[in-house]
Write a structure and sequence with these properties.
The structure is a single chain. 43% of the residues lie in helices and 18% in strands. The chain is an alpha/beta fold and 149 residues long. It has one domain: Mannitol-specific EII, Chain A. Strands 1, 2, 3, 4 and 5 form a 5-stranded mixed β-sheet that branches. The radius of gyration is 14 Å and the shape is globular.
């Protein structure tokens, strides 16, 4: 399943209300709970924070890809958040993250998880596209950007 097929307004938060790393992750987990995509917020939060403790998933150019494997996700799942002001995320380039892609997968599904991470890496090479995503003021605008990309 392509990443774009998973993106719908119910899994997007634009803008994020959070101002810190853990709060941003928690907010995206809450988005997935509200969308009915995960079964247990605490289990998901623990899986993502445990992964984050091994090394920041803040990449560069304002992108963070917190992720984890958990049985609380029945299938590959994504939540996207936008923070126009940026959130300190321990990114490789030292810059705050503005685009957040929370990816979850069941423990027995490695392939789709890796494919989604690779798809985000490819997409992030387009600075113009990422800048346009950060400028989105609501979930509908962001979904429209992906569907027209």
């Amino acid at each position: 399943m392509a990443l774009i097929d998973l993106i719908e307004e119910s899994v997007v938060r634009a803008p994020l209300k959070a101002s810190g790393k853990e709060d941003a992750i928690r907010e995206l987990v809450d988005v997935l709970v509200a969308a009915g995509k995960i079964t247990d917020a605490q289990t998901v939060l623990r899986a993502v924070l445990d992964r984050e403790a091994k090394g920041s998933t803040g990449l560069a150019e304002g992108i963070a890809v917190p992720h984890g494997k958990t049985a609380a996700a029945r299938e590959l799942t994504i939540a996207i958040g936008v923070s126009p002001d940026g959130i300190e995320f321990g990114s490789l380039d030292g810059q705050p993250a503005r685009l957040f892609f929370l990816i979850l997968a069941p423990p027995d599904q490695t392939g789709p998880h890796i494919e989604a991470l690779a798809e985000i890496a490819r997409m992030s090479r387009s600075k113009a596209f990422c800048t346009s995503l950060v400028a989105c003021r609501n979930p509908a605008e962001l979904v429209h950007m992906f569907k027209d990309e």
